[in-house]
Design a protein that fits this description.
The structure is a single chain. The longest helix has 19 residues, at about 200-220. The chain folds into 2 domains: about 5-150, 3-Layer(aba) Sandwich (Alpha/beta knot); about 170-250, tRNA(m1g37)methyltransferase, domain 2 (Trp Operon Repressor, Chain A, Orthogonal Bundle), CATH 1.10.1270.20. A 5-stranded parallel beta sheet has the order 2-1-6-5-7. Strand 8 (about 185) and strand 9 form a beta hairpin. The chain is an alpha/beta fold. The model has no long low-confidence stretch (mean pLDDT about 95). Helices cover about 35% and strands about 15% of the residues. The structure holds S-adenosylmethionine (SAM). S-adenosylmethionine binds near residues 116, 117, 132, 133 and 136. S-adenosylmethionine binds near residues 86, 111, 112, 117 and 132.
């Protein structure tokens, strides 16, 4: 089944261009996902196609008018749901949300610009608000592309290799283990011996130990979220000499 993405944006070309390249472009050609874009300027009546105005109460910048957005949504009752507005104050996007979206029919992403949306646009049309991080972009288009790419990579067949998303960072609540390719020695730095041993069980154990250690060191919050370290994981870390110096109480 084709995963559907509808994007409401003042810059459809920004979305369409990126969506046609590399992984997204190939997956789209394969029919894994389909894109439609909707420009709120098309839903304006004045000659200037006005989509913004000054904020009530004063302050810098312009605010997006509610009407072009609401009329865009009303004119296209077949927009796929949920309709998610991209705002820095929304719920943080993460791998779990990407996986949830990947199991549904698709998503409509509403991109803001300038100082953001008139609140009534959000109240009237958005099912939810989403943030892609604790920073402020100039517009929602890059945020929308982050979401689209993160989800499309999870769609069956989209990467042309169904195994890879399962092994990646976050797939198991852990960061990914370090990866190496040729040559075996580069500027005096060796690829770990175990990865060249051909012993697949040992390689799997080493990778898991590295993923655990890296997550403990860099993102102890992820370890805490999965309920701390299990006894078997503690033993695995100890067996690889990775327990010392790490805070394993999380
Ligand atoms: N005045 C707004 C505020 O402080 O929340 C910021 C508006 S921002 C300059 C313009 C648009 O970029 C937003 O309406 C939103 O669509 C998008 N945007 C910026 N940062 C974002 C983020 N971290 N996550 C999702 N969208 C973001």
């Amino acid at each position: 089944m084709t995963w559907r993405v509808d994007v409401i944006t003042l810059f459809p070309e920004a979305i369409g261009g990126y969506a046609s390249t590399s992984v997204l472009g190939r997956a789209r050609e394969r029919g894994s996902w389909a894109l439609r874009t909707f420009d709120p300027r098309e839903a304006t009546d004045d000659v200037h196609r006005t989509v913004d105005d000054t904020p009530y109460g004063g302050g810098a910048g312009m605010v997006l008018l509610a009407d072009p957005i609401v009329r865009t949504v009303e004119a296209h009752p077949d927009l796929v749901r949920p309709l998610i507005a991209l705002t820095p104050s929304g719920r943080p996007f993460d791998d779990a949300w990407a996986r949830e979206l990947a199991t549904g029919p698709g998503v409509t992403l509403l991109c803001g610009r300038y100082e953001g949306f008139d609140q009534r646009a959000l109240d009237l049309v958005a099912d939810e608000e989403m943030s892609v991080g604790d920073f402020v972009l100039a517009g929602g288009e890059l945020a929308a592309l982050c979401v689209i790419e993160a989800v499309v990579r999870l769609l069956p067949g989209a990467l042309g290799n169904d195994a890879s998303p399962a092994e990646e960072t976050f797939a198991d609540g852990l960061l990914e283990y370090p990866q190496y390719t040729k040559p075996a020695t580069y500027r005096g730095r060796e690829v770990p011996e175990v990865l060249r041993s051909g012993d697949h069980a040992a390689i799997a154990r080493w990778r898991r130990a590295q993923a655990l250690a890296r997550t403990l060191e860099r993102r102890p919050d992820l370890i805490a979220r999965r309920g701390g370290l299990r006894d078997e994981e503690r033993r695995l870390l100890a067996a690889h000499g990775l327990l010392a110096g790490l805070d394993t109480n999380g």
